[in-house]
């Protein structure tokens, strides 16, 4: 692409740029800005699980728990073995005051990927 040629607003190149910019905004603690960029990416590529997962994280960081929950659930419909999505959905349930739903997803995350953070959150030593 030459210096005078720019991607069109709905081009694949623009979506990649928006996705990367959304990652940066989320890292810079601007989740609402990230959501705005990701809305167009998800609209153009609804099957893109990475974009949906990033948008779910941005919703969570913006304390928009219901949209975060819906996005994490959609990711898990497509990737039921995604330990991070289970963990993040559990955190969303926990933050929304639903400890039993949270415990289920914490335990699934730990079973799928027994990293220390997931195992600690799963609290397997406690009775269900």
Automatic annotation (TrEMBL):
TPR repeats lie at residues 83-116. InterPro entries: TPR-like_helical_dom_sf, TPR_2, TPR_rpt. The keyword Thylakoid does not apply. Keywords: Repeat, TPR repeat. Gene3D superfamilies: Tetratricopeptide repeat domain (1.25.40.10). Signal peptide: none annotated. It holds the Pfam family TPR_19. This is Tetratricopeptide repeat protein. It comes from Streptomyces virginiae (Streptomyces cinnamonensis).
């Amino acid at each position: 692409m030459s210096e005078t040629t720019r991607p069109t607003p709905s081009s694949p190149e623009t979506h990649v740029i928006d996705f990367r910019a959304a990652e940066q905004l989320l890292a810079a603690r601007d989740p609402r800005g990230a959501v705005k960029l990701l809305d167009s990416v998800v609209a153009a590529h609804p099957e893109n699980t990475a974009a949906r997962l990033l948008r779910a994280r941005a919703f969570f960081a913006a304390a928009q728990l219901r949209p975060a929950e819906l996005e994490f659930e959609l990711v898990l419909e497509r990737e039921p073995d995604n330990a991070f999505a289970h963990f993040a959905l559990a955190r969303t349930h926990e933050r929304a005051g639903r400890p039993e739903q949270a415990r289920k997803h914490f335990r699934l995350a730990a079973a799928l990927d027994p990293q220390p953070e997931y195992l600690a959150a799963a609290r397997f030593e406690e009775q269900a």
